[in-house]
Amino acid sequence: IDSFVTESFSQAALLKGKVKDSVTQESIPGASVFDANDNKVVAVTDDQGNYSLSIGAGRHQITCSFVGLKS
User: Of 15, 51, 59, 66, which alpha carbon lies 20 to 30 A from 6's?
Assistant: First the structure.
């Protein structure tokens, strides 16, 4: 997952990124993006593999999954 914070607030931030295959570097549309802290889906990638999500203050581990691909 490529990610970066685009806006920052005192208690929240907007995180934007792109999910790509690690071998082919192709975008992965429809991948589920999770906050591993609570294992809750927080976003789904668009047709170009992009996602954006609002995260609260603190440390977060963002991960993704897609049926048919090994993570």
Answer: 66
- Residue 54 gets the label, from left (phi > 0), alpha (psi -120 to 50) or beta, of beta
Residue 61, strand partner residues: none
Q: 14-28 as b/e, with b when 16 or more CB fall inside 10 Å?
A: ebebbbbeeeeeebb
Could you list the beta-strand ranges (E) of 19-61: 32-35, 40-44, 50-56
The phi and psi torsions of 10 (rounded to 5 degrees) equal: -65, -30
The pTM of the full predicted model, rounded to 2 decimals, is 0.75
